[in-house]
Structure formats: C-alpha cells, structure tokens
Write a structure and sequence with these properties.
single chain; alpha/beta; TIM Barrel; Lyase, Ornithine Decarboxylase, Chain A, domain 1; 2 domains; 7-stranded parallel beta sheet; 12 helices; 17 strands; elongated; binds pyridoxal-5'-phosphate
Length: about 400
C-alpha cells in the first residue's frame, strides 16, 4: 500500500542479525534454536523478520497462531514453522496442508491430528511444569510415552515446557529450577524415545549466559543442551536488568515528525480534558502519532520523546492520532515553522544515534517492553534497512 504518513517504525535487520549471533554464541554448537516470531515478530513484522532470519541460516521459526504460519508460508517462508497455540480439527488440517509442525498440548489435539494425518506427522509435546497455562500435566507423561511408542501416525520429535520466571534461572533454587526438575522427571518417562527438549526463553538464555560467564558448575542449565526459544532477546532487549552478558541491540525505532509547533500561553491548555496548562508561554510540538499507533494514553503527561537531540515531555492527553511535546526549552527563534518536519523519536535511536529505550516507555505505561513493542499497531509502516533487504 502507498503510504503518506511520516510516522514509521524503523527496523534494523543488522541489529536483528547481531542479536541472533549473540544468542548463537550462548548456544554453542548443535543446539535447537527456534526464534519466536509470533505476534508479528513482536511488532517488527513477521514476514520480513522471518525472511531475514532465513538469510541468517535459521531453519525453524515459532508462531502462536495458525494464521501467522499461513501468512509466512504465503510470503515465501520455507522454514519449519512450529505452531504453539493449539488447534481444533480444522486447524489440524491447515497445519498439515501447509507443512507446519504442531505443538500438542491436549489429547484432543492428538485425536484431531490422527483424524487428518495421511502420512506420519512430526509433533512437539508441551508440558505444564508450573506456568499453568497450556500443556499436559506431568501425570500424563507415562501414558503419552506409551502412546508415542505405538502411534503409527504421530512421531514425537521434541518435549517442551515454558518458564514462568525465566529470569530467575540463574538461581539453583528459584522457580525455574523447580520447573526444570519437574521437566527432568517428565523426560525420564521418554528415555526410550529419540527426542530433544526445549525450554529456554530470553530470560533462560540470559541466565545460561551468566552461568557460563561465571563458571558456575553443577547447574541445571548446564545439565542438558536445552533448546532455545528466544523472543525478546532477538529484538534487542534484556528480559531483566541484571543481564549484561549478551550485547543486544534494539531493533525497532519508533519515529514521527513534527506536524506544527504552537505557542500556548498560561491559562490555556493542551488536548482533551485540558489536563496540562503551561506556567509560562510555551512552545508545543504537535506530533502525528497517538494511541492508535501504540503509544499508550497512560503515559499522557508522564513520558517523553527525543526531539532535536533532547528529551521533551509529553504534555496533555495523548489522542488517537496525535500527541504533544513541550519543546519550550529546545526551540528558539520566532519562526516556528522551521521546526515543522523535525524528527521525533518515541523510542530507539534518533538521527544522531542518541538512544531512548522502549523500556522507559514500558515502565511509564506500567507494563513490560514485550507489550510496548507488540503494541505498535498495524497502521504504522515498518521501514526495513540493513541485511540487504529481504
Ligand atoms: C512458548 C513460548 N516460548 C518462548 C517465548 C519467548 O519468550 P521471550 O520473549 O521472553 O524470549 C514465548 C513468549 O511469550 C512463548 O510463549
């Protein structure tokens, strides 16, 4: 579609490549790694991200929805696609028709696959070890193991579970340690199967990096070559502030440009609800990006953006399509029109490489950086650069 707006998300595929290589460094050789590109690759664009990862030699990609997998297939992604969300019979048919690999979490899903399989179907089986979201409970291990020994239509390839607090996996007695111990008990039932296991999200991977760097011995993260499923780390953010071992580069920069700059006088106010009134004559930049683009209204009067290399506070309520910045301390001169088209960076790197972290916006929005990134809405065009455009 032809785009007319100058608000956009700049996506650095070189940063993505650098993060991928940091993750691989932690992995070492011969480890299963499934980059998670669900939820539109955490807002970065799943097709472009998937194609870029393929260029980097990735052969397996993780999505949540069947629909996400279908979009990847129809856009030329040839990698194995792992579908995590679950499915009904209709979904099972589509998964197989488009050569995707199902993650199975219930006996019903096994039945649906059996009903539609006309050749052997590879499956990954998910266990609940404490997250209590999806997955078989551990008490099903023996029955599942017996089932897969006999099944002609389904071939068990991998076992998986998901950490509820991957960032505590450094600790030998945290929640991740407990989940891993449960998972190891589950794996015991599958001794006779030729399977691998994956469980490390970004928190788990960063923990492993720390364990390796600190030469911790006898740690459960070192006990097996646990497979990786990196999401956030791939997009350049740490899952917790204590992690420093991997040098990650934020991939997305959210940018807009000034629409106009207005003078607002004491006694006047800005935006809906008249929640901001200047104490001195002020210069207010109107920026055409709003909550419909993913800048949460919650950060009205709280957060800031980079404008001409400096932080400018967001003033007044954030609207659907606009927000306003107090740039009084930055602009000078009477000709305010010369600032029209000045670039504004909501998070990421400005034109002089000054950085404003999406974590700041996340914190001020009372949320996590995962949500800040995935909130960047569809109407924000993504501009890709680096890694020779896929
Ligand atoms: C099953 C599964 N694996 C891996 C991930 C990646 O997690 P992270 O973004 O913390 O790396 C997710 C994300 O929610 C997930 O649901």
């Amino acid at each position: 579609m032809e785009m007319f707006r100058s608000t956009y998300a700049d996506i650095s595929l070189d940063a993505l490549a650098a993060n991928w290589s940091e993750i691989k460094k932690v992995a070492g050789d011969d480890r299963f790694i499934c980059p998670m590109i669900k939820a539109n690759a955490y807002g970065h664009g799943d097709v472009q991200t998937g194609l870029a990862l393929e260029k980097l030699g990735v052969g397996i990609l993780g999505v949540c929805l069947i629909e996400e997998g279908l979009l990847l297939r129809s856009s030329g992604v040839n990698s194995e696609i792992l579908v995590f969300r679950g499915f009904d019979k209709r979904g099972a048919e589509k998964i197989l028709e488009y050569q995707m690999t199902p993650v199975v979490s219930t006996w019903e899903q096994i039945k649906y696959l059996e009903a539609v399989a006309d050749e052997t179907v590879k499956v990954h089986v998910k266990f609940n070890t404490g997250m209590n979201r999806i997955g078989f409970n551990p008490d099903q291990s023996e029955k599942l193991s017996d089932y897969f020994k006999k099944s002609k239509s389904l071939k068990l390839k991998a076992l998986l579970t998901h950490y509820a607090m991957g960032e505590d996996a450094v600790s030998k007695d945290g929640f991740s340690a407990k989940q891993t111990a449960t998972f190891l008990e589950i794996m015991d039932f599958f001794k006779g199967h030729d399977v691998y296991a994956h469980l490390l999200n970004s928190g788990g991977i960063a923990s492993l990096a720390q364990v390796k760097q600190n030469n911790v011995s006898d740690h459960f993260l070192l006990q097996k070559k646990w497979g990786f499923r990196p999401g956030l780390a791939l997009y350049g953010y740490q899952s917790a502030p204590q992690f420093k071992e991997m040098k990650l580069k934020p991939v997305m920069t959210l940018k807009s440009v000034v629409n106009n700059i207005r003078t607002v006088l004491p006694g006047e106010s800005v935006s809906y609800g008249c929640t901001w009134t200047p104490l001195v004559p002020s210069k207010v930049a109107v920026v055409p990006i709003g909550y419909a683009d993913g800048v949460h209204r919650l950060i009205s009067n709280k957060s800031q953006a980079l404008f001409a290399g400096q932080l400018a506070p967001i003033v007044g309520r954030i609207c659907m399509d606009f927000l306003m910045l107090d740039v009084t301390h930055i602009v000078s001169g009477d000709d305010l029109t010369k600032w029209n088209e000045e670039e504004v960076t909501l998070f990421g790197f400005d034109e002089n490489n000054k950085f404003l972290s999406a974590e700041v916006m996340a914190e001020q929005s009372n949320t996590i950086v995962w949500e800040t990134l995935t909130s960047v809405s569809e109407r924000v065009p993504r501009h890709y650069r680096g890694l020779k455009k896929p």
